Design the sequence.
């Protein structure tokens, strides 16, 4: 892991700003592979664009404290967009109260809005979910969600902005 991150960092700084940077998706152990995204910045540029907390979640795959995001309680109609690039990710129509303390959805707003990778940071592998446009880490997907999908997209509120309808 540490080694992967170092590799990614040095690759990014070497390529510099503005280049189309292949990003090691999800720092994801076995599944780690270079992917490129339509929205792509150097690490320095991401740091400039994002708050420290947003950077930690979106670019370093951090996890916010449960019940810490106001978006957990957001119940108005609207759209949740990527805090990194504005890509529309989730709709209030698919949000539900999971009781976990993180904003939870049973599906993304469209199948192309998010991408997935395997996260091997814990003993058991988890399904990582990220923004399809900028590769920013959003959270994880679990199989204990409600019907019709049975999926629970457990998303960091910091990774998203809310636009009311
Ligand atoms: Zn994004």
Sequence:
């Amino acid at each position: 892991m540490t080694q992967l991150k170092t590799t990614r960092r040095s690759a990014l700084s070497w390529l510099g700003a503005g280049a189309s940077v292949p990003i090691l998706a999800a720092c994801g152990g076995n599944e780690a592979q270079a992917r490129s995204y339509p929205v792509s910045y150097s690490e320095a540029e991401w740091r400039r664009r994002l708050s420290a907390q947003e950077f930690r979640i979106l670019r370093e795959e951090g996890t916010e404290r449960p019940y810490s995001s106001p978006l957990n309680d957001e119940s108005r109609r609207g759209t949740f967009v990527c805090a990194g690039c504005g890509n529309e990710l989730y709709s209030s129509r698919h949000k539900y109260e999971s009781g976990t303390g993180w904003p939870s959805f049973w599906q993304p707003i469209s199948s192309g809005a998010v991408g997935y990778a395997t996260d091997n940071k814990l003993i058991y592998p988890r399904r990582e979910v990220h923004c399809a446009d900028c590769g920013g880490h959003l959270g994880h997907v679990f199989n204990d969600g409600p019907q019709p999908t049975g999926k629970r997209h457990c998303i960091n509120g910091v990774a998203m902005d809310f636009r009311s309808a």
The domain at 2-164 is CATH 2.170.150.20 (Metal Binding Protein, Guanine Nucleotide Exchange Factor; Chain A). The longest helix spans residues 2-15. The mean pLDDT is 86.
